[in-house]
Write a structure and sequence with these properties.
alpha+beta, Glutaredoxin, 7 helices, 4 strands, 49% helix, Thioredoxin-like_sf, Tscrpt_reg_Spx/MgsR, Arsenate reductase, Arsenate_reductase-like
Length: 118
């Protein structure tokens, strides 16, 4: 079973869900805004993917952060920011058999294929 974490109005999340459905992959969707986010989930993702990969610096949430919040980043600060504002998390985040995949680019798609096949 694949768990997809994201937000409903994210184009990349919608594309990922559509692709999973087309492939017949069993999955569930966890909306970060509606369903919330636990510290344990963020901790697991940070340990697996690293904060640099998990942090979405391209979105409006990042751009709206005060300059002081965007400086001197470390894992603890990024974790706090993500818990306060889940849209700072790069989307989608997939969990498959305890493994974490972030994003839906070619490399992420390839890794998902391998995880689902194995």
């Amino acid at each position: 079973m694949i768990t997809v974490y994201g937000i409903k109005n994210c184009d990349t999340c919608r594309n990922a869900l559509k692709a999973l459905k087309a492939q017949g992959r069993e999955h569930s969707f966890h909306d970060l805004r509606a369903d919330g986010l636990s510290e344990a989930e963020v901790t697991r993702w940070l340990q697996s993917a690293g904060w640099e990969k998990l942090l979405n610096r391209r979105g409006t949430t990042w751009r709206k952060l005060p300059e002081a919040e965007r400086e001197d980043l470390d894992e603890g600060k990024v974790k706090r920011l993500m818990l306060e504002q889940p849209t700072l998390i790069k989307r989608p985040v997939f969990e498959v058999s305890g493994e974490v995949v972030v994003g839906f680019d070619a490399a992420a798609k390839e890794r998902l294929e391998k995880l689902c096949a194995g």
